[in-house]
Amino acid sequence: MKMRMDxxxxxxxxxxxxxxxxxxxxxxxxxxxxxxxxxxxRAAGKMAWRDLPYNQEGAVKEIxxxxxxxxxxxxAFVVLGIGGSALGPMAVQQALNHPWWNELPREKRxxxxxxxxxxxxxxxxxxxxxxxxxxxxxxxxxxxKSGSTSETMSQFMIIQQMLxxxxxxxxxxxxxxxTTDAVSGNLITIAKAEGYKYFIIPSAVGGRFSELTPVGLLxxxxxxIDIKGLLVGAAAMDEACKEEDIYKNPxxxxxxxxxxxxxxxxxxxxxxxxxxxxxxISDWYAQLWAESLGKQFDNDGKTVNVGxxxxxxxxxxxxxxxxxxxxxxxxxxxxxxxxxxxxxxxxTIPKTYADMPSLGFLGGVTHNKLIKTEQDATEYAITKSGRxxxxxxxxxxxxxxxxxxxxxxxxxxxxxxxxLNIDAFDQPGVEEGKNATYAMFGRPGYxxxxxxxxxxxxxxxxxxx
Amino acid sequence: MKMRMDxxxxxxxxxxxxxxxxxxxxxxxxxxxxxxxxxxxRAAGKMAWRDLPYNQEGAVKEIxxxxxxxxxxxxAFVVLGIGGSALGPMAVQQALNHPWWNELPREKRxxxxxxxxxxxxxxxxxxxxxxxxxxxxxxxxxxxKSGSTSETMSQFMIIQQMLxxxxxxxxxxxxxxxTTDAVSGNLITIAKAEGYKYFIIPSAVGGRFSELTPVGLLxxxxxxIDIKGLLVGAAAMDEACKEEDIYKNPxxxxxxxxxxxxxxxxxxxxxxxxxxxxxxISDWYAQLWAESLGKQFDNDGKTVNVGxxxxxxxxxxxxxxxxxxxxxxxxxxxxxxxxxxxxxxxxTIPKTYADMPSLGFLGGVTHNKLIKTEQDATEYAITKSGRxxxxxxxxxxxxxxxxxxxxxxxxxxxxxxxxLNIDAFDQPGVEEGKNATYAMFGRPGYxxxxxxxxxxxxxxxxxxx
Lengths: 465, 465
Hints:
2 copies of one chain form a homodimer. By secondary structure, chain A is α/β, with parallel strands linked by helices. Chain A has 18 helices and 12 strands.
């Protein structure tokens, strides 16, 4: 089963505001350059995430063994992670498992534990969490490559203390598993010193490209997900994405179309899945696309302030929230519909009120047909309104098609980075906020930043209501 | 307790890209005109939602009586609604109740039932839902003003059939409650014919402005929420929003600043709560702002294609996802931080790894302090990067402050509509998609649209990969 991409509605032949064949042709030099960069960087080990479909075999075995060893001991598997360490696990779980997984009795979960992802440091969260589960019956997965992520590490310290108080240091040891860098950072040091089980994030793989490492694979496996299937799907997409001819390479074409869109004022990228199961894919994509492409400087040091803002939405739900704006507002967005051919369940509307015109036509129709028709109708309306849009379709949501989709977006993001001539793999813009946080806490070494903060002009009360 | 708004960082005195005092002053005529329109329209009954804080007393009593009568009979209260009928109830529940409400034992819910909101027609949803609860132990709240919302009404028909099969027509009657228009539409007709309990949405109140009608009040009351408190808060904000002087009127000033932002190319409105409890406020706001202001024509019939795209995000979580883009990407957004002074719980980080520089400074700090500091640091970084931002703060999240906040956004939206000279209360842009759906289903009366669809050019396979 292969994912497909339909970009007819990105083109001027179908939407008033669309891309012309000339515009596409004009970019052949950029395409060649980007193709070469993708190949060269991969060969130079600068795109280590591209090898994940092929080199995680050992990790998969170790993960599956560990799941078998541990799963009956615990009620819940708890991710302590933020950013890619949280968004990937949530997206995969939502896509492949029951939407009310944690509310099902264990046998309906095939014997697998519940899953919680605690990614924020809202103080209410941990307190309420401890009221919800028996916190001593959980396995806590601390995910941080650097081991210095304040949010994750602070949660870890709170939970470690709680566990050691409640069950003792020895038993606590078995309830914590770390996912981190093999060598550098606090977390690997701590894991070794405390004797925690740990899994490795390959050092050249960045957070938002790490879903196919133990970052994503371990939580998925604890929920009974076929993690080999994810990798097999990713490998299939990797093959498709090696195509030189951009008309045969879906990820490169996706990037190119968005790149052209950006040059034409489309600063917004809307992701609109028509399946509840794919809702959190939008969240995962939002990080990938925003953090990779939102950059101040290009590779030549020129100030460019590029980037497209991802918008998370859900069909049909957001037809009743966002489509008014999409159809009538500014010509500032590219809308990506994300559909499925076959849902996992079928339900039929009875012919109860056949005599009421606005209800009668629904009688005997399945929700499968209704949601699909509404997707087609929305695509039609958006296209008629002249707005660029395209559609990605999974034949069915499975581990393999999901692996394809995730990998597709990763390649598309990297390729868009090449077209934009920026570094898609760094995130210098988050340092300022981190440093300000350290300074506010008086962390040694941040005295200069502290002085800068202290010197900032006070707020004017006139502008506070 | 009063919500406050700090817009210092919208101004050129603090951000390179900000608004000057001159720009504000220049708009005094528009402000006067908008003020007058707000007063005139309210007097003419065209802003019926503004009276809700004062005229729902009867509804509140009836709702509370009904909750007392029914709550012990049911395990769960289930909203069948979409758009405003779903987003409001979810936002209020998330704000005021335990985040894992449905997973708590009943006594920890103070005896109140679980809450489910089923707003999509993904066929997997209802099937999976029926696997999660005992569907005969639920009270289903069908919410549709027109009674012709395909999604909601189709869910209703499926559930009505299921109930009648399982418990018989008589018992089923007690498990369905409708919220709809008093006179027009299918749902009131059905409710009366079938003998269902029903609550009324005042006919002049539109869906996205209906949270303070039984649309929002009934689900909230079934979760034990102080619905009178919501209305009291809204009434307090109504007073503040009657101020002629825009420097004293937070909602009008919010609208004005965003309006100026739009004229300066800020086509994106980011809502970033720093509290898990306020996460779904962003979803509710996204509908309100997008659907009200995203319009093709202004009041004079001129093509304007205005509107600002709302982006939902969450602090601190999305510092690890979106802030890179906000700090370094295009100058195309206004970021609204939504904070709280006091969280409902406190949790402290132990001093476990005092000797590790990146962890040591966290020892002894509360998560309350950490999240607040990160909010301040992000505000600092965003401001330093020259991006417009502002902060709304609730002293604490309570029914009353939440009522203030919801009502604040409603007034701000209406006022922004006046400044833009558009109708903030219609949604003509969703008709095309609805009509296409009807035509695709062969609904009588849509033959012409069907012919139009049939005549649309086929997709070119060349552009499908």
